[in-house]
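Appendix B. Extra example for self-study. Work through it before the problem class; the solution is given directly after the inputs so you can check yourself.
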Amino acid sequence: MGIRVGLLGLGTVGAGTAAILLAPQGRHPLLQEVELRWVGVRSLTKPRPLHLPSGILTTDLEQIVRDPEVDVVVEVMGGIEPALSLILEAIAHGKHIVTANKALMARHGDDIYTAANQAGVYVMLEAAVAGGIPIIQALKQTLGVNKIQAITGIINGTTNYILTRMQEEGGEFADILADAQSLGYAESDPTADVDGLDAADKISILAGLAFRGRIKLEDVYCEGIRSITKVDIAYAEQLGFVIKLLAIAARDKAHPDQSPPRLSVRVHPTLIPKAHPLASINGVYNAVSVVGEPLGEVVFEGPGAGAGATASSVVADILQIAAMIKTQAAWQVGIENQSDRSQVSLLNPLLSCATMEYCEISPIEAVNTRFYARFITSDQPGVIGKLGTIFGHHQVSIESIFQKDLRNKDLPNTVAEIVVITHDVLEGNFRGAIAEIQQLDTVQSIPSILRALEQSL
Amino acid sequence: MGIRVGLLGLGTVGAGTAAILLAPQGRHPLLQEVELRWVGVRSLTKPRPLHLPSGILTTDLEQIVRDPEVDVVVEVMGGIEPALSLILEAIAHGKHIVTANKALMARHGDDIYTAANQAGVYVMLEAAVAGGIPIIQALKQTLGVNKIQAITGIINGTTNYILTRMQEEGGEFADILADAQSLGYAESDPTADVDGLDAADKISILAGLAFRGRIKLEDVYCEGIRSITKVDIAYAEQLGFVIKLLAIAARDKAHPDQSPPRLSVRVHPTLIPKAHPLASINGVYNAVSVVGEPLGEVVFEGPGAGAGATASSVVADILQIAAMIKTQAAWQVGIENQSDRSQVSLLNPLLSCATMEYCEISPIEAVNTRFYARFITSDQPGVIGKLGTIFGHHQVSIESIFQKDLRNKDLPNTVAEIVVITHDVLEGNFRGAIAEIQQLDTVQSIPSILRALEQSL
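Solution. Structure tokens for the complete assembly:
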């Protein structure tokens, strides 16, 4: 028996997906039983990068999601609508879903999973996060026997590309963003990437799977990279760090016994020690570290985007569903009511998403983290002492505090630049100290406050 | 319904496995339906690191593999016998198998898979390679939609620990091996590790899964790290490399169209460019790079051994089987002949191993690789010219050839040390050139010949 796929969208990822499905030789043999039945597009006349069998291209997307012959609907259109309506319609017609749409799943995953569980169909989204890296399957299946402690990822290629170039070339954010836009590495409206929103979508999806609770996107703390300057990158370099945009989801250790666990979920630029496995992830590459008990830490790295890598994950999900359909078909012989998929328990619990409860998310003030802060102060004795005293009053333990010769040449001579690195401290305490420091006459400005990571692996 | 596990062995991995099964809270909820029914050991009186429920410890291993109540037999005893007989007996009694035994699976995987396919049971072995890194599942499932081109791994922790310490401390192999033995990082008989045999077992397993053909262990070229000296590590360092024991399985590009593909499968110490993702894998950590089309390269890194990490993989396999049993049980309602698992097609094709054919393995002479070679020669003009001429005659393209001031102080003044790095060349050609160079009066010895890797990711 064949498994029939209806593909919604024929952009970069859609074309990559079709290319794999149309050339199954040398791949998993089960792919030979997967048939690309429909490809839904907006325009039949637009030139396409690949040759499709005749009769499968259509502009009638509604008809694809309703076609009784279609087993799996693959949504690679992007955007919220009409993707959401088409997916819900497909689920209502008993289709399994494969999607690469992180924005949609981060916002409407709850509705989609609920509908899918009622209909007894799978919703698979390996391609929604970290392109070709099989992190979703690992979290749902292999790593699921662990108590996951934390997920830390570089999961936005555009910002990693910009930060890598700032690091390597010593350039400023705005210039490199403009160049990245002209080269096609950043969108003309770069907001979703550089403000961390795309990473927030993705970490909410990863956190939901790893901690088996749903995540409200508005609970995710999100800080982008627009404020990163070459001065801070140079300081970080001197101190043995690189700056990366990290997405982090971690158990809140102050509330260890909640179920689903209480989490801290956040996206922000972070100083990473150079020997940390994530520090060497450069350019558009993605990487995800998972720390679990009793496993320890595993790190996955690879291409975070691109037609081939993302299509690899889309087709991997199709393959998972095809394997289940095929296995069940063998068992199904003799069952009278073959089309009854209305019981959730008929789904493989490692592929389905039965979680209904939301995770409670701790406020950013409850996070324990190291900080890097840069202060512009009057160049007079006693300033460092004042900073140290205020941090001490707020229970902020300082790892190092110093004033370097690297002082910004644009500043007048009477001004000093002081950099502080703290140990792991409660963010709320640190913020309290900063609020008090801002009141000091001797402190002119605090151009940078960034979080920093401990060494790991 | 519960899924009942019979555990054979309660050493490090067995105890780690039991610990997870006995404390399922906070892990995948399906684990709560998995019951540790039996733990088979040699001695009932030996002190154990964990508290087991009463009545499950037994020395009657035969009874475990025959117990009609047991669904899954987990073999973590190690060694060939009695593990092999017990596994075959368990399969004959319809039990699914989870094993961490790479030596057994590399030598007898063929018999075991054949028996399992006939009996309609799964044989899972995530824990056999790279400890807690979920590389087996990735190769069998997610990455299987790609045409895999190459797998390159650091998959033996002992040798990586020794090479890392040689690199960091500048010590010699024998001294650091002795210290590693005293610290418990190397066995008293270190042969399996330092001669590359353990890595050969593991790469034959990975290659079999990635390329969907079986691998004869005796076809795997295997070279250990005993001959690596601190002189070579220092040279490599100067040239921008580190030396690692790599296990490599790659399609033989000279024979692109065979099915299953013709491969090169080999284990040998290798110079790796420092910016390569595998270069920073230090100590007992493992890492595996997979290059596929259209995916590109993904790299997995993590703990390669240890109770927690390996047990995580063992229990992940139990979970996979439990998920299938549970899913099928739901479908099974209404089927008359519930115990008939004699058809291979009843198994999920992403979990089972249906491959029967052996891969043809190319001889080491057919490998294309870079080489590093160190020559002790007379210190007289024209030697470099002679080397260059002979390499040229044998179609060996040289990347760099030089004579450094780092010359070994133990050597007399009339002797020079020359290091050559080649481009990718056919190993057979290189060997031909070396044979001719050995005949030169001016060449006293060739203490080191090592392969080197191109940059990647």
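Self-check: Residues 163 and 241 of chain B are 13 Å apart (CA to CA). If your reasoning did not lead you there, revisit section 3.
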